[in-house]
Amino acid sequence: MNLSELIHEFILALIEPGILVGSIGTISFINTTNSSFSLGLVFTCISLLYFALNADFIAAAQLLVYVGAINVLIVFAIMITDQSVSSDSEKRGIGYFTALGACSILFLTIVCIFHKINDFYSSSIHQSEYLKLNLFEQNDVQNIGYQLLNKFLVPFELASLLLLVALVGAINPARDEDEGKDIAENKKKSFVSSTSPRDKSSFF
Amino acid sequence: MNDINSFLSRLNSTINFSTILPEIILIVGLITIVITDLVNKGKNAIFLYKIFLVSTLVSMGILFYQLISVIAFEDLYTNNIFNNLFRFFILICSFISVLLSVDYVLCSKISLAEFPLFKISAGLGGMILSCATDLITIYVSLEFLALSSCFLSGYTKRDIRSNEASMKFLLMSGASSSSLLYGFSLLYGFSDGQVQLDNIIDKILFSQYLPTICISAAFILAGTAFKLSLFPFHQWTPDVYEGSPTPVVAFFSVTSKVAALSLFTRLFRLIFPYLSNEWHIVVELLAISSMILGNLIAVTQRSFKRMLAYSSISQIGYVMIGILAADLENGYASMLTYTFIYIFMNLGTFARITLFSLRTGTDNIRDYAGLYMKDPVLTFSLVLCLLSLGGIPPLSGFFGKLYLFWHGWKAGLYISVTVALVTSVISIYYYLKIIKLMLTKTTNPVDTLKTYEKQKSLVSSVISTKLKSSVEMAMILCALASTLSGLFMDPIIKITRNTFF
């Protein structure tokens, strides 16, 4: 192994235990605030993994979205709700063992799949084809921007409209209805004094 | 300045804006509504509805103009007749459903301004879904439609049933779109990274990966069958329809079903032609079960909206026969004609229910008793629409069903057509039950009749020359279309004929 591969392995060896420790911490801390912070550690280490794998756009997106938005939201939610620190019951029912069995089967399946893919792709034919693609010389962010505004223009603009509608729709049930009360009072007065508002629908 | 000019000219050469001009007009309408509401600070909200209607009408006009031409837009859209017809249907749905929702929203004392916003965005999502030939555009527009529908169903936030309805809708639509995404991801992987539907078919080696393509087809079927509310993905329909405000239910029952129909047809026609035997059998099974289940359970319902929810499940079962019976010379003519007629029948029925519930505040079928004495015009128009839904000649529902079943029989779907005929008879039973309830005089005084007397009936306002309520206009439009479309069946069929792709 030459020097660059050695450095690569070293960095990966630093990041992967971070992910492992963070995820074990997320599920086993009793205090939920500690748990959410270790979730933040997991997300940050995944983002560093993307950097090490030469995917700079996804790494930046992961940092911004997962760590900066989702994890912060989780921490806010935990800190706002009043959590009494309760001790877990020590009895492990049937659900625990079912979940354990299912997760271990899933894990073994994924490990087998990865081994098979590794054997498949490490044969020399595929390596030469992969090198021909010359992926390391292109700029990810530029490429993504170009495709977003050319090929995927419609979904991109539609997603921005979707954000607008989602914002309006999220605020709509949650806001204070002071104006609603005024309108209700006006309607009551008009109802009593004149005929029903339906007859005087002022649409036309 | 030079840069901007060159950019614009390059933009115009790559993108042909005239193809998505109807959607652009809707977007302009949406932005105008938001800005007008902000400027007016909540006063004069009826003006917003007028903006909505104007933009929908302009959009429809431009779509008429484009209906003949076939232009491709960067391979994301193809404007063949099938897609254009669906866009037109969705515009009609939005237009009529907004007409019948104005008074309801006024009377229910909730803020008016966001309602046309959500309706426009749902209509926009439906329109783009009808044209999308690209997995990403399909998914984003489907989510757009689902999200706006979810906000619409939870609009009356003080009503607890409305909250429950929107919660159920959100959760179920999230689950179904995740299964749809999984199916899409399998297609994406097997076609070597292609996102556009045409390229996917070119690149997938069907012979090699057949079992996994079947899995992908199953997941996509699960995802789209949720929106269509086929059995067994229909569980959300009755609760959501009962809980949401009535004009919103009217909008749902047509728009999301029409958009989901176009999606379903396009996906299964383009991607899975090699599997046509397999998915034909599965869809036939689903259609038969929806028809049987929808009609049988609708017999026992006591709430009008819930009954209409189950009846719409069975109507979609009928339309599935039309999809399965598509062949080269007729295209999807039977499905398209029945969908067109279904839109008017359903919206007409919901218009009358809206008017009735505005006046009496109840949704129980029992309270419709003796309506003939209080309001004959409403009764007769409701009778017309219900008979059209049941399929009684000479109304247009009969002609639609006749064409559909005839095509199904010709295509060899003998079991489905037999089941459809039997369940149609069952549906006539429960529609006639309501009609009989309305037309006969009751001997016991019911509270709702007393409250009805306090308000003026429809007769006086129709006699006066000016139409004062938009609901009435929607009602009259739908009544005319439900009855007279039967006479104009031939030109409609001729238009919908060459839609096979």
TrEMBL record, chain A:
Protein name: NAD(P)H-quinone oxidoreductase subunit 6, chloroplastic
Annotated GO MF terms: NADH dehydrogenase (ubiquinone) activity
Species per Swiss-Prot/TrEMBL record: Ceratopteris richardii (Triangle waterfern)
PANTHER family tied to this protein: NADH-UBIQUINONE OXIDOREDUCTASE CHAIN 6 (PTHR33269)
Entry similarity comment: Belongs to the complex I subunit 6 family.
InterPro entries documented for this protein: NADH_UbQ/plastoQ_OxRdtase_su6 (IPR001457), Nuo/plastoQ_OxRdtase_6_NuoJ (IPR042106)
Transmembrane segments: 6-30, 37-53, 59-81, 93-117, 152-171
Keywords: Membrane, Transmembrane, Transmembrane helix
One Pfam family hit: Oxidored_q3
UniProtKB/TrEMBL annotation, chain B:
Source species, domain of life: Eukaryota
Cellular component GO terms held in the UniProt record: membrane
Keywords noted in UniProt: Chloroplast, Membrane, NAD, NADP, Plastid, Plastoquinone, Quinone, Thylakoid, Translocase, Transmembrane, Transmembrane helix, Transport
Domain NAD(P)H-quinone oxidoreductase subunit 2 N-terminal: 17-103
Topology in membrane: Multi-pass membrane protein
Residue ranges crossing the lipid bilayer per the database entry: 20-39, 51-73, 85-105, 167-189, 209-228, 279-300, 307-326, 332-356, 377-399, 411-432
Subcellular location: Membrane
Record domain NADH:quinone oxidoreductase/Mrp antiporter transmembrane: where: 132-427
Molecular-function GO term, any one: quinone binding
Species for this entry: Ceratopteris richardii (Triangle waterfern)
GO biological process: ATP synthesis coupled electron transport
Protein's name according to its UniProt entry: NADH-plastoquinone oxidoreductase subunit 2
